[in-house]
From TrEMBL:
Involved in beta-(1-->2)glucan export. Transmembrane domains (TMD) form a pore in the inner membrane and the ATP-binding domain (NBD) is responsible for energy generation. Belongs to the ABC transporter superfamily. It comes from the Bacteria. One of its GO terms (cellular component) is plasma membrane. One of its GO terms (biological process) is peptide transport. This is Peptide ABC transporter ATP-binding protein. It comes from Bradyrhizobium canariense.
Amino acid sequence: MSTAPLLDVKDLEQRYTLPRESVFRPPGQVRALNGVSVRVDAGKSLGIVGESGSGKSTFARVVMALERPTSGRVALLGRDLNRISADELRRARRDFQMVFQDPYGSLDPRQTIARIVAEPLTVLEGIDRTTLRARVSAVLRQVGLRDADMEKYPHEFSGGQRQRIAIARALITQPKLIVADEPVSALDVSVQAQVLNLMQDLQEQFGLSYVLISHDLAVVDYLCDEVAVMYLGRIVEQGRPEDLFEHCAHPYTRALLEAVPRVRAGGGRRRRGAQAIASQSAAATGCPYVSRCALADQHCREVLTELRKVGETHLAACHKAEAVMALPQLPVEG
């Protein structure tokens, strides 16, 4: 018997109208999301990976109900977030919070840490000052900070500490889901590991679910139970990390693996497979990845690819998936 997912996203589309270039032609559109469907079960983590412009951050904003989608459904705990009232949505936000990419820009420099962390609670419910301070103190300790930090300001902390503050702010409402948009990309490598370990510890302690947006394959491999690879607003491959990174079935996933910087024998680093991402406003038939794929044939140019099973829990939107899986696989390097 299957249980209902914590987060259920179905056929999500998000289109943006471009400025009109001529009075004789209708304005064009950018398809930032094009039929995205995913689910996240309680206590599990989903990673969304892809290049800049693939639709990852748009997906995060729509899931967080910061934008209303053109069409599709985003349901949290069975509630369609786009069909409830503004008051209901405000109350529902205690169940889902967001951690942003930039730990420097996401914290108000004029506010103390106590006010920053307490802000989601003060919006959601009226509680007395003593209880509020006790909640802030508890959540700061949970992320490795001290009571004495409450009266400080963001500029007094390092980048890793600021991201811990951002995580504390997300935890203060005791949410069931945290959407993290590139939460470690602005941090030094040594600090990234500390923040990821913290996120993992908090998940085990509180049963949190994460939607982790990242371009870093090693990050999602470490933290996520399932990974979805996005290209031009579509999910082109989805499955467990070991499926995608050890037996990838889409040439785009393989290109992402090849693009990971690798150390050469003669010193220095190289980046392979990096190419410019295609336009999301381009009207094309067939596979969206066809212009970049070395395996593409006429069938790929003419017939749109849909996600299909290539393993028990492994999906790929590629006519040549079996041929891609037969190629020598590439490791994910942190």
